[in-house]
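Entry type: protein chain
Record version: 2
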Amino acid sequence: MKPTDFIALKYFFSRKNYNIVYIISIFSVLVLAIANFSFLTILSVFSGLEEYSLSFSKSFDPDIKLRPASGKVLKITESDIKLIRETEGVSNVSKIIIGKAVIQNGNKTEFAEVIGVDGEFEKVILIDSIMVVGAFAELNNYTSYTSSSLSRKLDLTLYNSSGQYLVSTLSSDYLNFFIQPFSNSEWLVSNGVFRTRNDDNENRVVVSLPIASKLFGYEKNTYSEVLLKTTGNSNDVKKKIEKALPNISVLTHKEQNETLYKIMQSERLIVIAIMFFIVLISAFNVVAAVSMLIIEKENNIKTFKALGMNRGEVFQIFLKNGMLINFSGLVIGLLVSTTLILIQANYSIISIPGLDIPYPVSLKIENIVIMMVCAFFVSIFSSYLGALASKKIK
């Protein structure tokens, strides 16, 4: 062990008198521990909220989505579907039809988005994760699933043929629109309720693919979108499909929610910047603690120099002492934050006010690395500033 290391450790651990320097050092460690604890905890809460928000997008936005390059209808043959299924990295393929329709139940009427799905739909997206009433099962020509907003507005009765509601598509014939406004209609029963990103305003109905095809007049091998679930890197799968089917638009999950991802990344950078400055401000206590220690040990410094220690070595003693203070605050903050995050993640001791939902948290390695990198630069900066005072002692 170098003499500078030994002396720095001795100054840090062997203080027994409760003098002002000792109190400032302990206070500095506590303040840094709180700052680092807050840094990691806030980042983990933000990551949890981010995952919670993305869970809604994954309910109807798959790993990869195929859309028509132009127009509203995607024409794709069974041989193309087979080619997609055989693409490395694709595990499931679901064909869907989407359109707007008028929903009527008694004297109540609402507009809604109708989504026609095939048998593989639940294997591609996370529909079960947003079901609040009932469980998703295979659809037939009479059953459907409705969003909580639509179910509430129309006062729909579930699981009962007496609770049938009417789904109608508007006629595209403008000359006969006022005489016969609806082109196709189907009576359906709701077998369950799911929630959406905006439960108050999003009206959606999930029906079988044949019903949607009949309602919107889609021909054979024509769909609105094709949804894919992948097992590997989505970008690699995208490149393979674009090469095989160049006339189809291929979008990864990130591209489908580009605005959402950009907003979350911007918010994340702002949070990191704010927390970094909080830790930086907290570290000025280290500058004070090291400066006070230098004043207290002025006679010792003169003795070290008389024994042959140069200014650089004396500077290193107090630089390392400041680093020890910063490191102690980092370790304490990291351990306490990690413990609380793991407890919340596993036992859900804190819930969102007004909702019976555990506060979402997510402990990620990247958050720990970000916090430690910021703490490292702050510790170097604050320790260096504090140790500068040693150079003024002759």
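Comment: Residues 3-57+261-392 form one domain.
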